[in-house]
Amino acid sequence: MPQLNPNPWLSIMIMSWLTFSLILQPKVLSLTSPNTPTNKESSTTKNNPWTWPWS
Question: Which family does this protein fall into (predicted)?
Fold first, then answer.
């Protein structure tokens, strides 16, 4: 069964992860979002008591 032979696939996997970790990941992480998050002003809601018609 050729799937169990790790000779070519192990080295391909290691090289692809090294490429991702060392080259692609810093490039992706350096990108910034065009919309910077802003803090929303907290507004308090006024709670009115409920008047029950049968009380």
Answer: Belongs to the ATPase protein 8 family.
What 8-state DSSP symbol labels residue 54?
A: T
**CA–CA separation, 45 and 49 (whole Å):** 13
Say what the alpha-carbon torsion angle 18, 20, 23, 24 is, to the nearest 10 degrees. 180
6 vs 36: CA distance, rounded Å: 46
How does DSSP classify residue 22? I
Per-residue model confidence as pLDDT tens digits over 1-54: 556 777 788 888 999 999 988 988 888 888 877 777 788 777 777 888 888 887
Report the distance separating Cα 49 and Cα 55, nearest Å: 13
